[in-house]
Design a protein that fits this description.
By secondary structure, the chain is α+β, with helices and mostly antiparallel strands. About 35% of the residues lie in helices and about 25% in strands. It has 2 domains: about 70 residues, no CATH class; about 110 residues, TATA-Binding Protein (2-Layer Sandwich). Helix 3 packs antiparallel against helix 8 and helix 5 runs parallel beside helix 8. The radius of gyration is 17 Å and the shape is globular.
Length: about 200
Amino acid sequence: MSKAVDDCHFQDLAQMDPADVCRRALCNYDAGQGCYVLAVWGEDYGVFPEESRITRLLDTHDDARTFFDLFMVHYLLTCREIPIRKEWISVKDITGGVTFFRGPHEIPTHLIEKRFGDNLPGFRDACAQLGGMPLDMADAAYFFRIAPRIPVAVLLWKGDDEFPPESKLLFDRSIGEHLALDIIFALAVEICSRFSATLA
C-alpha cells in the first residue's frame, strides 16, 4: 500500500482512459494486471490504481519511496502531451516558484553538498551509477531522465577556502506545465535524498 499517496488520487487515475494516460505520460498499460508500467529513473514501476499500490517491477525488494510514489501518481494524472523545451531553469523560474520554494519548501540540495562538496570524482561516480549524462555546467553536472517527459539536471560546485560547496537542481522549462509546485518539491526531495544515500 502506498501510504504517501491519498487513495483519492489513485481513484482519479482509475477513472481515466488508459490510452489517454499512456499517450500523455509515454508509458504502457497492462490491462490484464490493471497497472500502468512507467519508467522512472531507469527502472520500471507498476502503478495499480484499483489497488492504490506502486511496485518496482524487476526487484522483489521494494524500498520506501514516499515522495517518489507521490510524484509517479501525479505524473500520470497531470502530465501533458507537449515536447521537452530543452531549456534549463531553476525552481524560482517556475510560475509561483519564488514564493513557494523557500522555508519548509526549500530544495534540500545541502544533502548533495554535504555528501560530495569536496569530492567531485565521487559525485561523478554517483551520477554515472544513477544513469546520468554529463553536462558542461558548474564544476560537474549531469542530467537524468526521471520520467519520459521530466529531465532534471544536478549541478555541483566544489567548495574551497573562500566559498562553501554549492549544488543546484535545474528543470526543463516545461515542468510547470506537467506538475504542481508541491509535486515538483516532492520530486526534488527524492533526488537529493538519493544522492545523499549513494555508495559512490
